[in-house]
Amino acid sequence: MIRAYKFLMRPTVGQTIALGEMLRDHCSLYNGALQERRDAYRHVSRTSIKYGQQSAQLKEIRAFDPDRQGRWSFSSQQATLRRLDKAFAAFFHRVKSGKTPGYPRFRGENWFDTVDFPKNGDGCRWDTTPHDPVTRVRFQGIGHVKVNQHRPVVGRVKTVSVKREGKRWYVILTAEQSRPEPLPATGSVVGFDMGIANFLADSNGGFVPNPRHGRKATAKLEAAQQALSRFPRVHRDKRTANHQRAVQRVADLHRKVRRQRLDHAHRTALGLVRAYDLIAHEDLKIRNMLKAPAPKPDPDRPGTFLPNGAAAKAGLNKSISEAGWGVFLTILTSKAESAGREVIAVDPRNTSRTCPECGHVAADNRPTQEKFHCVGCGHRAHADTVGAVNVLRAGLVRRNARQG
What we know:
five-stranded mixed sheet
C-alpha cells in the first residue's frame, strides 16, 4: 500500500531563493507547453499535441536555456508536462460527459506551488543516513535541504514533491509499505449522520459538535483582509514591506483554520476507527449539494428575476464547505484501510424521514431540523440520531449482501 508523508523543510536563504527559481522555471515550462497546444489547435488545422511530442522537445529546450531550464531535473520537467496533459484529459472528459468544461489556464507564479519528482534518486534523494541526526533531502540544482522529520518514514520512498505554502516549504513523500497488522476486533458497529449543527451524530445517540473554526476566525480574517485591501494593486516587485506583511497575515490565518480543520478530522476519524469494526456513512454528493440555485426569470417583467433563495443557499454552502465533510471521509477511509476496518457508504435518501421503529416514511416525520416525530407510531427522537440508525441498518444490509 502507498502512504504519504509531509514534512516541513528548513532551507537556507540561498536555498529558499533557488527553490523559488525552480518553481518559476517549471511554471514557465507549463505555460509554454500550454501556449504551444493552444496555437497548434487554433492555427495548424486543429492539431492536438500530446505529452510524448512535448517531452521529446525537452532536450532542445534545456540546451537552448541552460541557465533556467537546463539546471533542473529532467524527470521533474517531464512530471510538469504530464501535469498539463492530465489537465487536458480532464477537460476533454468533462466535455464528453456534458459538464462545464473549464479549459486549462495559464498559471501565475503564485499559483504554481508544486514540483514533482516521479522517482526517488532521479533528480532528488531522500537522505536516510543512519548516523546523521539531521534529516535532509537533496534536490538537483539546490543541494541538501534540512527537513523537520517529526515521524519515521515506513517503507520504500517512491516519489518526492516540493510544495510551497506561503513562506513555508514542505517535502511530500509517497512510500510503498506492506499492509499493517489490523487492529483487534471490537465487535461494535456504528452508523453516523453528518450535519451542520453537529459535525456528526452516531447511531448510539452520541454527537460530535461542529467546531466551526472558520466562523470563529471570521473577525480576525475580516480585519486582516480589510487591512490588505487598503494597499493599491501594484506589481509584485514594487510591493512594500507593509503590503507583504498584510498578505502574510491573511495567509497565516487561512493556514491556521485549515490545520485546525484537518486536526479535528484526524482525531474524529481515529476515534471511530479504534472503536468500531464497521462504519457506515451517507454517500453524499457534496459537489452537487454546493451548486447554486438556478435563476427564476420573471415572466411579467422580462430581464428581471424572481427570488430563488440564493442568499440562504450561499450561507448553507459556506457552512457545508467549512465543515469539511469530503476531507473527513477521505481521512476516515484511509485510516480504516490501515486498521483493517470496513467503511460502507449508503444511499442517503429518506434516512432522516424513515421511522426506525415502524418503517413509516414521510416528510412530516421531521417537523424541525432536530426533532423526529413519526406520524405513524408516535416515535420521538433526535432527527440526526434517527438518520444514523437508518444509515447503520442500510450498511449492515449491504455488508450481508456482499458476504452472501
